[in-house]
């Protein structure tokens, strides 16, 4: 197998792992300024800058997010953000220029812009996360806060044309978990087109299943976790009640049917 190249940036990314336990130490203002500025330098579709991030410092709001996510450690994060796709600011700018933001001709609330704003927010979050790791901090991305989207919208006072994407908890690590295995590149990177032979793509799956199973056995000695393929099968039929996007997005003013 071809050996990969190494430098400080590559090694920071290769050693990325989710940190769920933080030392109870505040994060310096200079670090916060650095992380936020780095996030602002991520790619942005058509330079619309259609995302925002809410820094959560109120302990009561942190506890509420921990309640939504069913993860108590969220409340203990020294630095906590919720990234939001944000067409509200752009709608305000357009309205000031005379655009009717409730007319059919207004396209910032359609499905394309919704998906692009999601992408932009995710790029910004990932840039912040990578910068945090490079500074010796630890992070965990929080999709769990979307267990109650309407509650999250309410507690963050999110206006029309905004929608929460993900949370990011940051702090000085107080644990050192093992690196999670990654599937073979041949299962995820293809040449020129998606392969027609599913069996060939999945040929390394049995070995990857065993690697993942061993990883979870070592991490959770008292609570065995299924192999990768079994986790996929369970998630394929999981109850997603309360996790759908369409209705809460519509209540926020988005028209995902366009």
Automatic annotation (TrEMBL):
Oxidoreductase keyword on record: yes
Class of this enzyme: oxidoreductase
Gene Ontology MF terms in the entry: FMN reductase (NADPH) activity
EC number(s) reported in the record: 1.5.1.38
Family annotation (Pfam families): Nitroreductase
SUPFAM superfamilies linked to this entry: FMN-dependent nitroreductase-like (SSF55469)
Keywords in alphabetical order: Flavoprotein, FMN, NADP, Oxidoreductase
Limits of the Nitroreductase domain: 14-172
Domain of life of the native organism: Bacteria
Family classification: Belongs to the flavin oxidoreductase frp family.
PANTHER family: OXYGEN-INSENSITIVE NADPH NITROREDUCTASE
Protein name per its UniProtKB record: NADPH-flavin oxidoreductase
Lineage of the species this protein comes from: Bacteria, Bacillati, Actinomycetota, Actinomycetes, Bifidobacteriales
């Amino acid at each position: 197998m071809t050996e990969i190249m190494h430098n400080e940036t590559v090694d920071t990314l290769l050693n990325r792992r989710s940190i769920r336990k933080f030392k109870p130490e505040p994060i310096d203002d200079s670090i916060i300024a650095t992380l936020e500025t780095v996030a602002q330098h991520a790619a942005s579709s058509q330079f619309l800058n259609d995302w925002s991030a809410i820094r959560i410092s109120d302990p009561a709001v942190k506890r509420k997010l921990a309640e939504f996510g069913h993860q108590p450690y969220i409340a203990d994060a020294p630095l906590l953000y919720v990234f939001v796709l944000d067409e509200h600011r752009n709608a305000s700018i357009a309205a000031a220029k005379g655009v009717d933001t409730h007319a059919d001709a207004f396209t910032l609330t359609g499905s394309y812009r919704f998906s692009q704003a999601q992408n932009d927010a995710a790029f910004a979050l990932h840039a912040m996360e990578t910068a945090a790791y490079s500074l010796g901090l630890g992070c965990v991305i929080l999709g769990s806060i979307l267990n109650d989207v309407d509650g999250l919208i309410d507690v963050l006072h999110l206006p029309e044309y905004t929608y929460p994407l993900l949370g990011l908890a940051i702090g000085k690590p107080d644990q050192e978990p093992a690196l999670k295995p990654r599937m073979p590149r041949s299962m995820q990177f293809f040449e020129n087109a998606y392969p027609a032979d599913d069996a060939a793509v999945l040929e390394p799956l049995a070995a990857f299943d065993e690697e993942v199973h061993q990883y979870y056995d070592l991490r959770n000695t008292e609570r065995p976790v299924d192999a990768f393929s079994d986790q996929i099968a369970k998630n394929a039929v999981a109850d997603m009640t309360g996790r759908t996007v369409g209705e809460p997005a519509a209540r926020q003013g988005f028209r995902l049917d366009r």
